[in-house]
Amino acid sequence: xxxxxxxxxxxxxxxxxxxxxxxxxxxxxxxxxxxxxxxxxxxxxxxxxxxxxxxxxxxxxxxxxxxxxxxxxxxxxxxxxxxxxxxxxxxxxxxxxxxxxxxxxxxxxxxxxxxxxxxxxxxxxxxxxxxxxxxxxxxxxxxxxxxxxxxxxxxxxxxxxxxxxxxxxxxxxxxxxxxxxxxxxxxxxxxxxxxxxxxxxxxxxxxxxxxxxxxxxxxxxxxxxxxxxxxxxxxxxxxxxxxxxxxxxxxxxxxxxxxxxxxxxxxxxxxxxxxxxxxxxxxxxxxxxxxxxxxxxx
Amino acid sequence: xxxxxxxxxxxxxxxxxxxxxxxxxxxxxxxxxxxxxxxxxxxxxxxxxxxxxxxxxxxxxxxxxxxxxxxxxxxxxxxxxxxxxxxxxxxxxxxxxxxxxxxxxxxxxxxxxxxxxxxxxxxxxxxxxxxxxxxxxxxxxxxxxxxxxxxxxxxxxxxxxxxxxxxxxxxxxxxxxxxxxxxxxxxxxxxxxxxxxxxxxxxx
Lengths: 298, 204
Description:
The complex is a heterodimer of chains A (about 300) and B (about 200). Chain A is of the alpha/beta class. Chain A is built from 13 helices and nine strands. Chain A has helices at about 10-20, 30-40, 55-60, 70-75, 90-100, 135-145, 160-180, 185-195, 195-205, 220-230, 240-245, 250-260, 265-270, and strands at about 5-10, 25-30, 45-50, 80-85, 105-110, 130-135, 150, 210-215, 235-240. Chain B is of the alpha/beta class and about 200 residues long. A seven-stranded mixed beta sheet of chain B has the order 2-1-3-4-12-11-10. In chain B, strands 5-6-9 form a three-stranded mixed beta sheet. Chains A and B meet through strand 1, helix 1 and helix 12 of A and helix 1, helix 2, strand 7 and strand 10 of B.
């Protein structure tokens, strides 16, 4: 019989879980009932939080990590991975979630930042982290701190996909610049991006980010989700878009199918029929700068 | 040789890379028509509930199960091991219902229990460049299942290829191969090569 020397909390197992979520949809849920609807619809994971971003936007106040009791309730309700959010820089909220045996932590700009200078040193934790990014530099800074997964920031709680599109296009454009650069140019690019040099070199070698990159922030319809896949995202987070719509179960299922078959317009047409009203949302173009969440973190 | 990779969700890219590195043509399987003309099928890691539902919704579950019963070589990793099994402890989820195994999902615990370890896999001894000099295989387990037990009366027999404290982590049964770990996340191609050897052996 083999006697195993098991290593936990490694970069491989942290990034590996993100790899397993590819091609899937991660849904925001606020209670065990919603978590079950999400799982039943085919979500690859759920994000447990007290208020979805559109409510945080509407109600204001300080948004913090969720009540552990509510997170535990959701963990008991489903067999898929359960994620939860901590405030940017809030080391102790992260430790609390790790103590709860959470599967993934989102260090999220949707919550009110706890530290306006430093992000969490995520490599210190055994639990994997996902972080938002608007461009390659931001993505590589988060990966440098130990993030095992990146997502676009988008503009959460708006139902307007334009910012998520802007962010993935910017990341793609930056990657193209790195890929087409000569080795001699990489240090200057790293300086311009504000990114760790070694990671820039790695991006050139791989032709993509070294971790999985999901879409997030403003996805409301199956077509939105498929658009983000078409633009090169590995999967999709849907926040307010599902449980703020008329028929969450049906919409959730439709978005799962649209992501799995994002190139199949006939299928997307079929699943988009009769979903009822999408979340009403608000156009990002009419948001004041101070009300945008994407500017949180650096 | 053409190998299909079930591409509904999960670590598709990594299996594709590994198989192409071994010189075989791969095809992403999204629709029943994609199953035509393949010599083997890989079911990647991902979320087994998600993949099971999509298999049913896109009419892939029955055709794949049928091909498996007729002898098509199928290799499942992690989620694939769950979907291949006839018995999933405590779950009614969709499955291909092919291997005579009893599978425990998330058997080691949640993500914090995910681990990597070097393992001796004797079955890989004569595989690849290192033939005859069997180095350990670096295994990565992510919210992994294991095979708790097998149906001893089954024909052909389920053969454990790797066990740890009585838990089966890698096994084969006739044309079927199942791993609880993720060989596709490493650069070591021996487990995939072992599967391709099975495909060649069984090819009519």
